[in-house]
Design a protein that fits this description.
Elements: H1 6-10, H2 28-37, H3 41-53, H4 57-65, H5 69-94, H6 103-135, H7 142-151, H8 161-165, H9 168-191, H10 195-218
Helix pairs in contact: 3-5, 4-7, 4-9, 5-6, 5-7, 6-7, 6-10, 7-9, 9-10
Length: 231
């Protein structure tokens, strides 16, 4: 019968198929599996948050190009909203405006904080897109802005730290500035805008969105009610 050389014998199973360990590293099935694992789960989420906090341009560029980031971006928006809600409620308790056992009021404050972030994010994104439509040709798909701007909310995921460290106003101010800078980097990645154009778009959209959200939620546009909601 046909004889097997030593190399074929060592790397062939008893059924004549190569063992799993001998599948080439470039195997498309493994490549797809590695790609899926890199885009799902807590590890992928925290890597994305870390990249956004570092203002890493490649992280935002990947968000623009890869629709898989939709779910991770949505998770960051939800995390930022929840962090804002709990920070808002905790600040109210710390300032003596809400009793520790007034659970119904506490829950209401959490809900208001969550709604504030969600409303501000979608309104801010819509306004930024409309502003870019004035100067960009062809018109940028709104999805190109949604994903990177969602990731730019990563600093807002840390809003709960304000009540923990005892300096909520300072923490809120630093994180708000951090978020605006991340939004500028995100916008540049999304529409290839100049630094000046990106800064102008972000500031105008943010300054327009904030009072509209305050007016909707509280019936006032300025100043914000105490305790103020993080932006």
């Amino acid at each position: 019968g046909a004889s097997l050389d030593a190399g074929t014998f060592l790397f062939t199973t008893d059924r004549g198929r190569p063992p799993r360990s001998s599948v080439p590293l470039g195997d498309p099935r493994r490549a797809r599996k590695r790609d899926v694992e890199s885009n799902v789960g807590p590890g992928a989420l925290f890597r994305l948050i870390g990249g956004a906090l570092r203002l890493d341009g490649q992280t935002f560029a990947r968000a623009v190009a890869d629709p898989v980031v939709n779910r991770l971006g949505l998770a960051i928006v939800v995390m930022a909203a929840l962090s804002n809600g709990f920070a808002y409620a905790a600040e109210a308790v710390a300032k003596g405006m809400v009793g520790e056992r007034e659970y119904a009021v506490y829950r209401l404050l959490v809900i208001v904080g969550v709604v504030e972030v969600l409303a501000h994010f979608f309104l801010f994104t819509a306004l930024a897109w409309l502003l870019r439509c004035i100067v960009d040709r062809p018109l940028p798909p709104i999805g190109r802005l949604l994903r990177p701007l969602a990731i730019a909310l990563a600093p807002s995921c840390l809003l709960f730290l304000g009540a923990l460290v005892g300096y909520p106003d300072v923490v809120r101010g630093v994180l708000a500035l951090w978020r605006l800078i991340a939004s500028v980097v995100a916008l540049r990645a999304a529409v290839d805008a100049s630094w000046l154009g990106a800064v102008a778009t972000v500031l105008v959209a943010d300054l327009a969105a904030a009072p509209l959200v305050d007016l909707t939620l509280f019936g006032v546009s300025s100043p914000r009610p105490t305790p103020g909601l993080p932006t």
